Amino acid sequence: MSFDDFRKELVEAGELDSAEAEKLDLMELISIYQKFKIKQATGGASRPSSLRAELMRTSVRKKTTKPRAIKAPKKKTAAPKKRSKPPRPREGLVYALEKLTTIAKGGNYCMTVVDGCWVNFRYKKRGDHLYFQVAGDKYIPKKSHLKKEHIEILKDMGIVAEPMSDDIFSAHFDDEPRNLKRIVDTVFEIFSKVYRVSKGADAYIEFVIGSKPSAEMAGAVEGMYDYFNDRDGKSKFCWNWSA
Question: Which of 60, 67, 195, 205 lies at 20 to 30 Å from 228 by C-alpha?
Fold first, then answer.
């Protein structure tokens, strides 16, 4: 049978009207004709509307279907590899405080966290103040809560309860010149003698040098990684407490 024969038989059987049949190419016409013949062979009633629906679906697919765009896989940012050399957290904190007191601007802080206990430095350029906070019981694990003798140790270091704060002890390290190494020794004494943290506990220093960091500030933060064997994100530099 020719193309015209297929079309004529479908039109005469009421499966298609002339206008619809004119729009079909050969493969579409053969597909509909085969369905029509199967219905005849099985005694099925002619259902022009079904065939027309099939025709419309085929036509719409031909006109509107577009190949799906394949998205390129997202590039994963490789985490810095852990370093095998021992971390140097004391030297790292000295470095951070040196940068904090020389190039920091705006919202800055340098927080040391060990086993859920924390101390924090903020630098106020106006007045050249290095402000130091020590968290009280409200902010630390129960096992490290402070007894009277621990508060006395803080007092001997010049760190006292802050009257306008809620369970925070504080001090200003504004001696000229600042002895940053001695200040860092004080921090480590607090974790050992006041908080009594366990050897091997998770520890990190979070160093944020300004709310709108410049290239110089970003480089200073990146320099912290020289002192640690692991990091978490951009600003947390990690180690395990040893002393």
Answer: 195
Q: What is the mean pLDDT of each run of 10 residues along the chain (243 residues)?
A: 62 70 65 67 49 47 44 46 78 97 92 97 93 97 96 97 91 93 98 96 94 87 93 93 84
Burial 82-91 (b: 16+ CB within 10 A, else e): eeeeebebee
CA distance 221 to 208: 7
What's 166's DSSP letter?
Answer: S
User: Could you tell me which residues are beta bridge partners of residue 230?
Assistant: 238
Structure tokens at 241: 């407490």
177 cis-preceded (ω within 30 degrees of 0): yes
- Its pTM surpasses 0.90: no
Residue type present at position 240: N
> Would you tell me the crossing angle of helices 3-12 and 26-41 to the nearest 10 degrees?
50
Q: Report the alpha-carbon distance of residue 67 to residue 45 in Å, rounded.
A: 37
Residue positions counted in the chain: 243
Distance CA 135, CA 179 (A): 23
